Amino acid sequence: MKIGMQTPSLSKMVKARTTGRAKRAVKRALIPGYGRKGMGLLKDPERAIKNKIYKKTTFSILDLFK
User: Fold this and answer.
1) pTM score of the predicted model
2) Short-list 3, 13, 8, CA closest to 54
3) Mean pLDDT, residues 32-44
4) Domain residue limits, the chain
5) Whether residue 31 has pLDDT greater than 80
6) Distance from first CA to last CA of the chain, Å, rounded?
7) pLDDT tens digits, 3-18
8) E strand or H helix that includes residue 51
9) How many whole angstroms separate alpha carbon 66 and alpha carbon 62?
10) d(CA 24, CA 36)
11) Average pLDDT score over the chain
């Protein structure tokens, strides 16, 4: 498991900030449970646990400026 600073990716940062509100609204209307807290743990528990550990042990370059 990685510990420390995450490798920055400009393309992923832009994509995350420009995903439209309409797209999320459509998914929320069509997919039951989409966007609700804890659904990742139900869908794929192993992945959810690994992601939680990763988020707690790493930091972004943007976090240094906060």
Assistant:
1) 0.63
2) 3
3) 87
4) 4-65
5) yes
6) 25
7) 888 888 889 888 888 8
8) helix 45-57
9) 7
10) 12
11) 87
* pLDDT in the model for residue 49: 94
Structure tokens at 51: 């992601």
CA 10 to chain CA mean position, Å: 15
- Of the candidates 55, 44, 48, 42, the one whose C-alpha atom is nearest the C-alpha of residue 3 is 55
| Residues 5 and 58 sit within 8 Å (Cβ to Cβ) | yes
Distance between CA 55 and CA 61 in Å, rounded?
A: 13
Please give the biggest Cα pair distance in the chain: 38
Task: Please tell me the distance from the alpha carbon of residue 45 to that of residue 34, in angstroms, as a whole number.
Answer: 16
Sequence-distant (6+) residues with CB within 8 A of 53 are 1
Please give the pLDDT value at position 2: 75
Phi, psi at residue 34, to the nearest 5°? -70, 130
